[in-house]
Amino acid sequence: MQVKSPDVPGEVVQGRAFGGDNDVHVWLAVGGGVSESGRWKKGAIGQLPSPAAMPAIIVVHAHRHGSLALDPRIETNLVGSTVQYECGRVALPRNCRGAFFSPDWSHCGAVVLLDNLRGVEEFLYTCTVFINPNASAAARCNREWFRGARVNYLDDDTFHWQGGAPNLSTIPDGTALLDEDV
To answer: Model-level pTM?
Structure first.
């Protein structure tokens, strides 16, 4: 398991955060890449044992004002960018797939986005899980392990949400996995 807390809340000026809530920081901590300073960051995926010997999970607590679990912007990096057709059907074409569809990610079973929100009437715990549909047998995670969380998983060629999709997700329940390009 790798746990990351990659962001900073920033300063709130007239309702907007400045100097924090940066999705690039989150993705660099998870998937690695070249940072704004030009330095290579390994990321959690590069720190998990490869090949996996047991279920492997990346946990992210973004440490920001907004909830990453309720607004899971890195889902496009992980799963991919969906396309909505005129008929209302939403699909994930082959050429729009994310990191989970790369062999470089087969040793990761799931990415967990974990938040705790204050400032509402009560303390709110949010957890959103993305199960890697292409994880190796050793790395694979079971969606039943995450009771009480929102869990995105692929069943046959259709994406589903256990516990309901976050309001701002771009992968609605029933999204089809296409074996063609757009």
So the answer is: 0.90
